[in-house]
Design brief:
Number of domains: 2
Largest sheet: 7 strands, mixed
CATH class of the largest domain: Alpha Beta
Helix content: 10-25%
Number of strands: 11
Order of helices and strands: HEEHHEHEHEHEHEEHEEE
CATH topology of the largest domain: Rossmann fold
Strand order of the largest sheet: 5-4-3-6-7-9-8
Length: about 325
C-alpha cells in the first residue's frame, strides 16, 4: 500500500503520501500563519540535517547531469530510520521530476526572470533546475522536515542561492496571494506573499486523494495567473483530461523504486479554465408602454439583449 511502512510492501510501490490530507498539517506540527512558511534555513534542525547527510551521497541526476543531489543507495533502511509513514522522497530523483527539470533547462524562457514555486519538492531537483535556468527566485515547498533539509543542502551544493526551502502544504488554501501555507512558519516577506509567476509540480498524481488535492492547488494557481507545468510517468491518477501534453521523455529510473529501468514521462501544462457559457435573451421595451384596443403598440419599441453567465450543474 502507498505510504505503508511494512517493508514487504515497499518494493516497487508507488510513492507514498506527500500530504496527509489534513489542512494545515506540516512537518513540525506547530500552529502559525506564514504564507508559504518561513525560510527553512532559519529552522533546520541538526537532527534532520544529520540524518540526510549520513544516509546519502552526492550523485549526478541521470537525465539531468547538470544537477547533483544527495541520493540514498536504497530506500528501505532509510525509510525505517525516518520513522515516517511516507517514503523518503527527498533521497531520490523521481521520474517526473527528472523530466520536468530537463524541460525547464532545455527551455529556460519558461522560468527565466520569474518567481517560481516548486510544490512537493522532495530533493529540490525541480527548484534547482529552475534556478539554473535563470529563475529570479524559487520557493521549494514540502511538508517533510528531512526534505526541507535536503533541499537546503542540495541548493547549496549546486550553487543556487535563489532556492529557498519552505513548508508548503497542498491541502492548505491559497491565502494572501501565496498558496499552500503549511501552518507553523512566521510571516514571510512581502516578496514571498505574491503569487508566483510559475508553479511546477512533478510526481504528484500517484494517489487518488493526493491527485485531487494537487489538481485543486494547481488550478488555484492558474486562476491566480501563474503558468502551471506538471510532469508524471503515467501513474494511475493523472488528470489527463485537465492537462495539455507538451513533450515526453524516456527517463532512466531506479528499478528498486519503479519496478522498471525506464519510464515514459510526459510534461503537461495546465490551461486556463474555460469561460462560463453565455446566454443571450431578447426583451422588448416600448416607449411609451401603451397599447391600443387592437393590440398594436402606440409607441416605439426596441429589443434589449440581456447577457448572463450560465454554469451548468
Amino acid at each position: 500500500m502507498p505510504g505503508s511502512r511494512d517493508n514487504s510492501n515497499k518494493r516497487g510501490a508507488q510513492p507514498g503520501n506527500r500530504a496527509n490530507g489534513q489542512p494545515g498539517n506540516r512537518a513540525n506540527g506547530q500552529p502559525g500563519t506564514g504564507p508559504c512558511g518561513a525560510a527553512y534555513s532559519q529552522a533546520m534542525t541538526p537532527e534532520a540535517e544529520a540524518l540526510v547527510r549520513s544516509a546519502t551521497a552526492h550523485a549526478p541526476v541521470p537525465f539531468v547531469p547538470e544537477v547533483t543531489l544527495l541520493t540514498a543507495p536504497e530506500p528501505f533502511g532509510l525509510w525505517d530510520r525516518t520513522e515516517r509513514d511516507a517514503p523518503p522522497f527527498w533521497a531520490f530523483p523521481w521520474a517526473g521530476g527528472q523530466g520536468l527539470a530537463r524541460y525547464v533547462l532545455d527551455h529556460p524562457e519558461t522560468v527565466a526572470g520569474h518567481a517560481v514555486l516548486d510544490i512537493a519538492s522532495g530533493s529540490g531537483l525541480l527548484a534547482i533546475a529552475a534556478a539554473k535556468a535563470g529563475a529570479r527566485s524559487v520557493i521549494a515547498g514540502d511538508i517533510d522536515e528531512h526534505a526541507l533539509a535536503a533541499i537546503a543542502l542540495n541548493a547549496t551544493a549546486n550553487s543556487t542561492p535563489q532556492v529557498t526551502a519552505r513548508p508548503v502544504d497542498l491541502s492548505a488554501t491559497w491565502d494572501g496571494g501565496c498558496p499552500g501555507d503549511a501552518a507553523g512558519g512566521p510571516a514571510a516577506s512581502a516578496a514571498a506573499r505574491r503569487t508566483p509567476d510559475v508553479v511546477l509540480a512533478a510526481d504528484v498524481f500517484y494517489q487518488r486523494e493526493l491527485a485531487a488535492m494537487a489538481l485543486g492547488f494547481l488550478k488555484a494557481a492558474r486562476r491566480a495567473g501563474a503558468t502551471v507545468l506538471a510532469a508524471d510517468p503515467g501513474r494511475a491518477f493523472v488528470p489527463a483530461t485537465e492537462l495539455v501534453p507538451v513533450i515526453s521523455y524516456e527517463i532512466p529510473v531506479l528499478a528498486v523504486l519503479e519496478d522498471a529501468s525506464e519510464k515514459t514521462v510526459t510534461v503537461y501544462r495546465l490551461p486556463l479554465p474555460e469561460p462560463a457559457p453565455v446566454l443571450a435573451r431578447h426583451l422588448w421595451r416600448c416607449h411609451p408602454p401603451a397599447f391600443s384596443v387592437t393590440g398594436v403598440a402606440d409607441g416605439s419599441c426596441q429589443a434589449l439583449i440581456v447577457i448572463q453567465s450560465y454554469s451548468p450543474t
